[in-house]
Specification:
Layout lengths: L1 E7 L5 H14 L5 E6 L10 H14 L6 E10 L3 H14 L2 E6 L7 H6 L2 E3 L8 H19 L8
Parallel strand pairs: 1-2, 1-4, 3-4, 3-5
Amino acid sequence: MKTILIQVGKTVNKHFQCVIDDYVERIGHYMPFDIVTIPELKNTKSLSEAQQKQQEGEQILRQLQPSDTVVLLDEHGRQYRSIEFARWMEQKQHVARRLVFIIGGPYGFSPDVYARANEQLSLSLMTFSHQMIRLTFTEQIYRACTIIRGEPYHHE
């Protein structure tokens, strides 16, 4: 199974990007993993929130294949403990050819992206910046990989 993280806009904090790159390399030892960055929209001052979500949504949907299992990182999604998330990912490995996680733009997702999604996942009841979520989520994917393999990275 190939796992892909789609994100809107580049990671601007170079320290975050350095750690994200480290986790991406680590994850690569367990499974194929890529991050796809959709460029931020230009001249957004003239666009409403709905128009921004719509345009970002069109770009997101262009990245997807019909057979993809699509999971939105969304505040209203299901929450898992790390071990539960690892078991969930392990189950997906048996049924999904491509597992695609998506971190939306500052206003969230368009109705079309919600309609295309198979599931929604929330990392916390708290709100984090999109920059911070990228780092946190790549670490959780790495942690899930080590849990699945029974390696000592995760401690209960």
